[in-house]
Write a structure and sequence with these properties.
With 474 residues, this protein is α+β, with helices and mostly antiparallel strands. The chain is 36% helix and 14% strand. Helix 5 (152-159) runs parallel beside helix 6 (176-182). The two termini are 18 Å apart.
Length: 474
Amino acid sequence: MAFKEYGKYDAVGLAELVRKKQISAAELLDEAIDRTAKVDPQINAVVVKHYDYAKQQIEKGLPDGPFTGVPFLIKDLDLLEGTRTTFGASVFKDNVADHTGTLARRFLNTGVAIFGKSATPEFGLLPTTECRLFGPTRNPWNLAHSSGGSSGGAGAAVAARILPVAHASDGGGSIRIPASASGVFGLKPTRARNPLGPDRGEGWGGFSCGHVLSISVRDSAAMMDAICGPEASSPYVAPPPERPFALEVGRDPGKLRIAFTDRSPYGDAIDPEIAAAVREVAALLAGLGHHVEERAPPLAADPAVVMGVIVGANTALTVRLTEQRFGREMTDKDFEILTLASAHNAQQQTATDYVAAQLSAFQISRGLATFFESCDIFLCPTLCSPPLRIGEINSMSEDLSHIMPILRRYMPATSMFNMSGQPAMSVPLAWNAAGLPLGMMFAARFGDEATLFRLAAQLEQVRPWKDKLPQVCA
């Protein structure tokens, strides 16, 4: 077959072609490399290229897994032994990983060929991907805009059809934000569904988790089946699924009780096109037979304040460990000003402040758990304004006061579900008049990815998005 057809397949479909020997893993890798060469100079999504690593995987023989032969990228925050891993930071520009993380090992066991690392902001701290080390990652729908963050490289690469699925991670929205900004599907799993070891028991106080961004719902479900489950060092485990997640795709979701809002959780009005899109999707859901009503969960505390304390403390530890490793104080030649400022602010706080932030996160979680006693799904916009313009957030500015108001306006609703540990997904169901994607976020009860996969598959059937392609597309 002429491999111009590559872009028509999701990852499950490509793996099936390899299984039937209609195409080889080497041919798929060549196609992914060609596509990277074609579009990456414009979007800057694949910032570390290690094609020889993937070729050696194929030559040695890939494991027999659900994605054998499928090209794959991991985010430049995760370790893959023998490959360059920078965390988006200048001080680590030549860092080579000396071991492989548990999640990366599980990706390898699925049979994927990992040919590079996708772009991330420094240490994944921002909802836009514009690190000083590599420069901005641009949105394939409009190059003047960001593809989101912190998994912005993954979002741009999948949207531009370099590959159908790529690793992503989410500590405050970093799977769902690029899914929305890039017009792809992204589901943040339940806390502890997927492993974070061996170096961490949990990330950002239990807020962070890893999974993928994908073109199709079934790719996300099949990948979760392949990589989920605890490891020896897991401090806690997610509730086991009733059946494989892949079997939920296409299963009747039944009549769901869906609550929705077209406002920010702070009560602020949002972009009018996004508000209209939420209402239109709510009407679509009602037309599918679901019970839909307008209401939103109350917030017992400010998620932005909680994130500032928890993430700041984790960033401060990263800076301290780096200083110990290099034997000197870190400066703005090593880390971006935002990273150093976040660490400095955390050092002014106390252990009591950290515990108070944890308590606030619990109170938010408790309120959400109570809210979901009377509904199955909560719908709201993933982002409350269109994808940010490149340069709108400047992590190297001497005055960082512009950042918090932008974050409050842009992504006010994502982090609450990191605090509660609930699964939440962004589904590409709308585009604005300027042609930029507007993702819709759906959250479910703790442990209930199954309902999200069923609903996502239903929406994928009635409003398919796979053939809607951006301006920059391989």
